[in-house]
Amino acid sequence: MSRSSKKGPFFCEKLLKKVLKQKEASRIEPIKTWSRSSTILPEFVEHVFLVHNGKQFHKVTVREEMVGHKLGEFALTRTFRGHIKKEKGKR
Amino acid sequence: MARILGVDIPNNKHVVISLTYIYGIGNDSAQKILDKLGIDHRKKTKDLTEEQLSTLATEIENNYVVEGQLSRQIRGNIQRLKEIACYRGFRHRRGLPVRGQQTQSNARTRKGPRKTIAGKKRVGK
């Protein structure tokens, strides 16, 4: 079920603060964050985030089309290296 | 057979049903359209007057995204997901379920026919 629109989007307020601070100083530095559930706000466009995927920080440069998605959607948490191929002739 | 919006040729069924032959119009929107225009649902399509047919066509054309335009829209949405490299985009690319369904078993609609792997041990034998 989708979130009540009355509440507005969920986001980490610290993130917005940091972004606005950077905007004021008009410089873009990667912002490290664990807040994967934060919605990407229009203010975030063109800023760089390092989104934690449980192990590492994944670099995400926010583009305009990403607005409305969550930060976590861009930092995958699983690695899939393919299925093990069984060697032939080995018993 | 009547023609509404170019290619669609709903036949001699009730109008509600006929309208659902248009891609992008289901039972619900068909009912809504007819209610709005004050056409009896039970009427057969062949019994409609030319005038009614044309009002139907304009109504659908103006208020609904339908047929080719709709499929283009859907394709565009998926394309967007792929381009921004988000999780849902990856799932679309891989041809796996997008909305968090399990994939250990089932998910055959997305994954397609089973690919049996030779030499794989059967479980429970």
Automatic annotation (TrEMBL), chain A:
Single GO biological process annotation from the record: translation
Key words, A-Z: Ribonucleoprotein, Ribosomal protein, RNA-binding, rRNA-binding
InterPro entries cross-referenced by the UniProt entry: Ribosomal_uS19, Ribosomal_uS19_bac-type, Ribosomal_uS19_CS, Ribosomal_uS19_SF
Example of a GO cellular component annotation carried by this entry: cytoplasm
Keyword Ribosomal protein: yes
GO MF term list: rRNA binding; structural constituent of ribosome
Top-level taxon in the UniProt lineage: Bacteria
Keyword Metal-binding: no
A Pfam family reported for this protein in Swiss-Prot or TrEMBL: Ribosomal_S19
HAMAP family recorded: Ribosomal_uS19
Assigned protein family: Belongs to the universal ribosomal protein uS19 family.
Biological function: Protein S19 forms a complex with S13 that binds strongly to the 16S ribosomal RNA.
Protein name according to UniProt: Small ribosomal subunit protein uS19
Organism (species): Uabimicrobium amorphum
Organism classification: Bacteria, Pseudomonadati, Planctomycetota, Candidatus Uabimicrobiia, Candidatus Uabimicrobiales
Automatic annotation (TrEMBL), chain B:
GO biological process terms held by the UniProt record: translation
Molecular function in Gene Ontology: rRNA binding; structural constituent of ribosome; tRNA binding
Comp. bias intervals (Basic residues): 108-125
A GO term from the CC aspect: cytosol
Keyword tRNA-binding: yes
InterPro entries according to UniProt: Rbsml_uS13_C, Ribosomal_uS13, Ribosomal_uS13-like_H2TH, Ribosomal_uS13_bac-type, Ribosomal_uS13_CS
Region listing for Disordered, in residue ranges: 95-125
Pfam families named among the record's database cross-references: Ribosomal_S13
Gene3D superfamilies: 1.10.8.50, 30s ribosomal protein s13, domain 2
Keyword entries, A-Z: Ribonucleoprotein, Ribosomal protein, RNA-binding, rRNA-binding, tRNA-binding
Role noted for this protein: Located at the top of the head of the 30S subunit, it contacts several helices of the 16S rRNA. In the 70S ribosome it contacts the 23S rRNA (bridge B1a) and protein L5 of the 50S subunit (bridge B1b), connecting the 2 subunits; these bridges are implicated in subunit movement. Contacts the tRNAs in the A and P-sites.
UniProt similarity note: Belongs to the universal ribosomal protein uS13 family.
HAMAP family associated with the record: Ribosomal_uS13
Subunit structure: Part of the 30S ribosomal subunit. Forms a loose heterodimer with protein S19. Forms two bridges to the 50S subunit in the 70S ribosome.
Name of the protein in question: Small ribosomal subunit protein uS13
